[in-house]
Amino acid sequence: MRILVCKNYEEMSKKAAQMILSQVTLKPNSVLGLATGSTPMGMYKELVSMYKNKVIDFSEVTTFNLDEYYQLPITNDQSYHYFMHENLFNHINVKKENIHVPNGMVKDIEAECSRYDNFIKESGGIDIQVLGIGHNAHIGFNEPTINFERGTHLVDLKESTIEANARFFDKIEDVPRKAITMGTGSIFKARKIMLLACGEGKAEAIYNTVYGKVIPEVPASILQFHNDIVLILDEEAASKLNPEDYKIV
Ligand code: F6R
Predict the structure, then answer these.
(1) What band does 4 get if pLDDT is binned at 50, 70 and 90?
(2) Are 238 and 9 in contact (CB under 8 A)?
(3) Spatial separation of the C-alpha atoms in residues 70 and 67, rounded to whole Å
(4) pLDDT (tens digit, 9 = 90+) per residue, 160-203?
(5) Catalytic residue among 67, 68, 234, 236, which?
(6) What is the DSSP string of 21-55?
(7) Interval between CA 140 and ligand 1 midpoint (Å)
(8) Which of 10, 12, 7 is nearest to 195 (CA)?
């Protein structure tokens, strides 16, 4: 695990965007695994500005999002489909047909999950997977549980996740109770992984991810076994780590 610590959120976002730029420059037809949530928003802003300044070209890129709420229409401004278009896709030249977000509105969820996994496989697999992390160390919507799930699946969200995500909805009752997410196994298959975290609230999850036992009760802990992973943190998220274990950038 490589751990890079940046002064603040802005610097973390810039660093993360530079990593995506390097990836897409070296391999223009890269397959990007993308996350939603507040953490990567600054990175998306940087990428949009790089695109506007003609520094990066997304015309051959394919994207797969980690997750989507179950039974929340894509027209709802809290759907992850909506989020991604608002924050990134509408402002860059990625082709519509190359954008993939799980469809939470389908009746046959199992078919949708295997369709999604097959799409990832047929696209050649994910070159770089961007991750945020929940306070309970969830990645995607792989909540703490008793086993690591392999592929895309439907999950019941934990009460703590519902509470954390309520900040985006009018009231907590509006937060969907279920979501479709890529499994820990699918995430792990990405060739490179870049996990972003900021703020003191994530410090414990980061500590457990880096030093804890590799157990499904701490979903992100499995990343300790990945051979090409970088954590990009702000100082607060890194506050519980031993300074010998990270590089200040
Ligand atoms: C979102 C996702 C989640 C978030 C996590 C952190 O696609 O996969 O795992 O990354 O809940 O969310 P924020 O960034 O809002 O703290």
Answers:
(1) very high
(2) no
(3) 9
(4) 889 988 988 999 999 999 999 999 999 999 999 999 999 999 99
(5) 67
(6) HHHHHH-TT-EEEE--SSTTHHHHHHHHHHHHTTS
(7) 7
(8) 12
d(CA 222, CA 142): 12
Q: Is the dihedral of CA 233, 239, 244, 249 positive or negative?
A: positive
Query: Burial of 150 by CB count in 10 Å (0-12 exposed, 13-18 middle, 19+ buried)?
Result: middle
Which residue's entry shows tokens 């802990």?
A: 221
In words, the CATH class of domain 2-248 is alpha beta
Q: Which of 36, 67, 193, 218 should be mutated for ligand 1, with most atoms under 8 A from CB?
A: 36
pTM of the predicted model over 0.85: yes
Rounded-to-integer distance, Cα 30 and Cα 239, Å = 33
Map tokens 């519980």 to a residue: 240
Q: How many residues appear in the chain? A: 249
Given this model, what pLDDT does residue 151 score? Answer: 96
Q: Which helix (H) or strand (E) holds 212?
A: none
Say if ligand 1 is within 6 A of residue 118 CB: no
Instruction: Please say if 143 is a catalytic residue.
Output: yes
Q: Is the CB of 140 under 6 A from ligand 1?
A: yes
Alpha carbon distance 202, 187 (integer Å)? 20
Catalytic annotation present for 138: yes
pLDDT range class, residue 12, cuts 50, 70, 90? very high
Which one-letter amino acid corresponds to residue 10? E
